[in-house]
Design a protein that fits this description.
5 strands, alpha+beta, 3 helices
Length: about 90
């Protein structure tokens, strides 16, 4: 499922009074809020759904598989999502 299909389903689920454009604005607002909040605090928890977090990866040296030379991988921040075991267990 892509973003357009998800937005169409969201509009249908919200009711007949909600257009595709309004559902798109709702989805964009929610996603933008998650991004902004996660960048500022590095952790956003939705009890029963999951946690959005930022993991910091330290710089490291790896070996190039073809030449055998050393490569420096720079530090970076990676967005991650950890689902709640309660919501995503096989019981549901």
């Amino acid at each position: 499922m892509n973003k357009t299909e998800f937005t169409k389903r969201l509009a249908r689920r919200l009711g007949k009074n909600v257009s595709f454009a309004e559902a798109t604005r709702v989805l964009e607002t929610i996603l933008d809020s998650i991004i902004v909040y996660t960048r500022s605090t590095e952790k956003l928890k939705f009890r029963g759904f999951g946690t959005f977090l930022i993991k910091h990866r330290r710089p490291r040296i790896i070996r190039h598989p073809k030449t055998g030379g050393k490569l420096l991988i720079h530090e970076e921040n990676i967005a991650k999502f950890r689902p709640s075991p309660r919501r995503w267990s096989k019981r549901y």
